[in-house]
Amino acid sequence: MSTNKEQAITFIDEKGEMLTGMSDFLWDHPEIGYHETKAAKLFCDTLQQEGFTVERPLAGIPTAFSGTFGSGAPIIGFLGEFDALPGLSQVSECPEKKAVEVGGAGRGCGHNLLGVGSLAAAIAVKHYLEQSGLPGTVKFFGCPAEEGGAGKGFMARDGVFDELDIAFSWHPGEVNSVACESTMANYQACYHFYGVSSHAAMSPELGRSALDALELMNTGVQYLREHMPMDNRVHYAITNTGGTLPGVVQPYAEGLYLMRAPQLGQAKDLYERVNRIANGAAMMTDTRVEIEFVKACSNTVMNTNLLQVLQRNLEQISVPEFSKEDFALAKAMRATQKGSASYFDELVLDVTDPEEQEKLSQNSNSDIHNVVMPFPMERQGFASSDVGDVSWVCPVAQLNIATMPAGTAMHSWQEVAVGKSGIAHKGMLYAGKVLAGAAIDVLRDPAVVERAKQEKLKRTKSQVYCAPIPKEVKPKISEGI
Ligand SMILES: [Zn+2]
Ligand SMILES: [Zn+2]
Asked: Ligand 1 centroid vs 410 CA: distance in angstroms?
């Protein structure tokens, strides 16, 4: 490793206290999507202190912002998220479910770490640009409302990422691995049914039940499930039942639907089929339905060229050393999640060399997966992410880094509980180092950018990014996920 690169990576350790302090502050102040005012202020103040030029708001979203340093090509972006999940409040490092504030939000997806880990990378790359004198620009993007809000989808639609040559991001998890899982495209819509209220016993013939309509819509969708592609998904939540008195015919009811498919076009087809079911339900009940488009995400376009740069840095930069206390906490937390599926075990199955597989399997008994996984096979994941939209604008690659005990389920109270532990801090700083190392390699060998762009053209069959969110739709600021 060159001295300049090594110094830039060590710089993250020098900034370690400030960075972990930031992620702990975010953990202590869990703000949900589009409400991240404290987080946005903290990031913008820090970016300014660190010598970045801050731009805020972006795409008309008050909590979206960027910090820029340097000049010329390549322009490298780091994506940072910082939103929390409603209802997941949990006491730190407590091995039983116990809320700090009953019903409050919590860090169930580790975005306090995600945002700060990406910021760490941007700070290190700035340090490298200053020391090396190489041309290049580093940009940190503060991306709100990943959870159910598609913040990056709105930002991509409005051209926020257009100038980027490439972008990197990461996600807290239970393994150290490059992210070879593509995410699903999705559409989210709210179905508002309007009926007529009346006395359910004295004048039922005058009533038109919006709740009946919503129930029929759900029944219709159950039948649809048998006749849609096997890898498609439809989920729903009833967000308003219209009332609590059975003696009143419910004049209003609403449901929030989330439809997913591996490709954007398939998700759109599914959305349109669900819309027809909603219209059918309204017709059957003599009610009216209004379909409110909420948001949509594109599927993620993978980029092997960039993933290989990340893999090289994962292997080059030392994995964190966890303390006795870290392992003790991991053991205690792990005991609370019996039988949870491990992504680690799934990745081990990809390894064809029996000796390497054996070596990795030994680690599967560890309470923290502190090894680097070999380059995994590409696969279709079932989750969705608004990083997908950025990956249609410029080549993107991501990492998963172990910030939690082995086998911890995402969006669980256990994940919240470890969000400001030593495991989380060490994993976050490691993520920042690997991302920074990869960006530095790209600055030193900009030919990678061209190869990554060619690969993106091939994978997208040269299709131009077409934002799935219509121009007139504004971000929906709600509690819904
Ligand atoms: Zn999440
Ligand atoms: Zn997440």
From this structure: 7
C-alpha 147 to ligand 1 mean position (Å)? 6
- Residue 171 corresponds to which tokens in the numbers above? 């996600």
**Closest C-alpha among 94, 89, 95, 167 to residue 125:** 167
Integer Cα distance of 60 and 158 in angstroms: 9
Q: Give burial (CB, 10 Å; 0-12/13-18/19+) of 338.
A: exposed
Residue 312: inside a domain, yes or no?
A: yes
Minimum-distance ligand to the CA of 152? 2
Q: Answer whether 21's CB lies under 8 Å from 32's CB.
A: no
Residue 105 CA to ligand 2 centre (angstroms): 14
Range of the domain at 127: 3-183+300-459
CA torsion, ordered 389, 392, 397, 399, to nearest 10 deg: 20
pTM above 0.90, yes or no: yes
Angle between helices 16-28 and 111-132 (to 10 degrees): 150
- Count of structural domains within the chain: 2
Give the pLDDT of the chain (481 residues) as one tens digit per residue: 788 999 999 999 999 999 999 999 999 999 999 999 999 999 999 999 999 999 999 999 999 999 999 999 999 999 999 999 999 999 999 999 999 999 999 999 999 999 999 999 999 999 999 999 999 999 999 999 999 889 999 999 999 999 999 999 999 999 999 999 999 999 999 999 999 999 999 999 999 999 999 999 999 999 999 999 999 999 999 999 999 999 999 999 999 999 999 999 999 999 999 999 999 999 999 999 999 999 999 999 999 999 999 999 999 999 999 999 999 999 999 999 876 667 888 888 888 888 888 888 877 678 999 899 999 999 999 999 999 999 999 999 999 999 999 999 999 999 999 999 999 999 999 999 999 999 999 999 999 999 999 999 999 999 999 999 999 999 877 544 4
Distance 479 CA to ligand 2 centre (A): 16
- State the distance from the centre of ligand 2 to the C-alpha of 147, rounded, in angstroms: 7
Q: What's the gap in Å between 189 CA and the centre of ligand 1?
A: 19
CA–CA distances in Å: residue 362 to residues 322, 354, 408: 17, 12, 18
Same domain, residue pair 129 and 148? yes
Take residue 208 and report the two structure tokens written for it. Answer: 């038109």
CA dist 188 and 394 (Å) reads 24
Answer yes or no: is 360 within a domain. Answer: yes
Asked, for residue 202, whether it belongs to a domain, the answer is yes
CATH number of the domain at 343, please.
3.40.630.10
Calculate how far, in angstroms, residue 452's C-alpha sits from the geometric centre of ligand 2: 25
Rounded to the nearest angstrom, the distance between the alpha carbon of 290 and the centre of ligand 1 is 29
